[in-house]
Amino acid sequence: MEALASLENSAVAQFILGYTWAFYGLLAVHAFGMAGVVGGSIMLSLRVLGFAVGVPVAGFEFLKRVAAWSFVANAGSGILLYFTNAKALTVLWTFQIKMASILLGGILLWVLWRQISPYKADADHRYDGKAKAVAAATIFFWIAAIVSGRYIAYTLPVGF
Amino acid sequence: MSETEFLAWVGQTPLSVFMVQTPIAFSVCETLHFIGLCLLIGALLIVDLRMLGLMRVITLRMALKFIPIAIIGFVINAVTGVMFFTSNPPGYWTNWMFWVKMALILAAGLNAVWFAVFEERKVLAVPQGSDVDRATKISAGLSLGLWLLVLLAGRLLPLTQTLGNG
Question: pTM higher than 0.80 for the full model?
Fold first, then answer.
């Protein structure tokens, strides 16, 4: 808990808390990141699930890079926001579910990409049930990350 | 009907009463708003970036297949957005960032209509391997830029509410 308290008392955390624009600016960066990561992941997953057959997965290579940079923006802004309320967030169940969902969503996305890569040049490829199950689970966990993330604000103890 | 009467009327609609009296309604709408945003931006990343000359492995015609997903995302956000407004009409009405967001949505919407009416037909006629013309590229660039600004304005709404409207 001392380490968490030192994060909250750090100069960075105090700066963010002291400047309302900084706090909301980080929230905005976090939203941009979310749109890139989750939006990109959902589009790829939908293609695997059978939407837009005719689009080769190779076409998503650039989107993958956009999603990766969005994740960097998301993680960076998320860490800074975490600094401002580390003690309360660490033990908050919605925050824990969000972190677990992001971890699972990321792992599943990696697994999905490995599964579909051999067919990525084939525009009309129809993926098997296993790939579709991973795609559906990927969407589920990224949506779970959004839902739990949204409810962090509603489940924080009063006064935080 | 004056501005005050309009806001009072909105505040008395069944939807407004529902939003105010149902504790979970606002948070559910916020969550759906975020999901709609991801669908909208995710789909537009494919459509607009392809029009701008990236992701060339995807044919122009196939990229357009993602437009319905963007529309679904927009509809989710429009519906939940109206629900937000009914929960606190004067709060939104007097927040300048709300009007910035509305102006940006109007501009993005007009650009989308322009794309659907004038550009989409041209895109479908472009021979495989060729690029879209400059007007289509400008429309695609505007689309992505304007929707990202809508996102920014939306995220800053609570800030200007907090700081007041001076």
Answer: yes
In chain A, which residues have their Cβ closer than 8 Å to the Cβ of B62? 52, 54-55, 123
* Model confidence pLDDT, tens digit, residues A41-69: 999 999 999 999 999 999 999 999 999 99
> What is the tally of structural domains in chain B?
1
Do the domain assignments include residue A119? yes
**A62 → chain B, closest CA residue:** B55
- CB contact (8 A) between residue A52 and residue B158: no
* CA pair distance B80, B101, nearest whole angstrom: 15
Q: List CB contacts (< 8 A) between B66 and chain A.
A: 43, 52
ipTM associated with this complex: 0.94
State the total domains in chain A.
Answer: 1
Q: With an 8 Å Cβ cutoff, are B38 and A154 in contact? A: no
**Tally of CB atoms within 10 A around A77:** 20
CA dihedral sign, ordered B127, B128, B134, B139: positive
* Residue A160 resides in a domain: no
Taking the CB of residue B50, how many other CB atoms lie within 10 A of it?
A: 25
Q: Which two tokens stand for residue B20?
A: 């105010």
